[in-house]
Amino acid sequence: MPRAHRIQYPGAWYHVMNRGAARRPIYLDPVDRFRFLDLVDEGVGRFGVEIHAYCLMGNHFHLLARTPEPNLDLFMQWFFSRYVRSFNSRHSLDGPLCRGRYKAIVVESEEYAVTLARTSTATRSRSGSPILRTHSDGQAIRHTFNQSFDRNG
Hints:
The chain is α+β, with helices and mostly antiparallel strands. It contains four helices and four strands. A four-stranded antiparallel sheet has the order 2-3-1-4.
């Protein structure tokens, strides 16, 4: 049976995550983390996806993303396939890095977006994750979310 298509539409907000295969690390050192973020940043420029918060843990990641165009799948395929190739090459590995498809939960409430952003920022600071673009205060997320989220349908 084919897998379900992802829900994508202009202006959608997503909680994107994936975990290492068998819960193995997906970053072995700071170079891997910076490479991951560099590719996210490059993908942001290519696809116009907005990353409002992120958290890189040892064996998984979380992104709070908004897509002005319905292209999350293209963004994720572009940046993550490059990251996996780079990681495998650098560490003389092969095969899949993560357990399967990434999860992308559509964020439909301001509270969920704010909580995710705050949790990502707090966890990132405890884990020593490098900084990319993020709105760490709930006010910035609320403003951005309210500006782009159509509550009427």
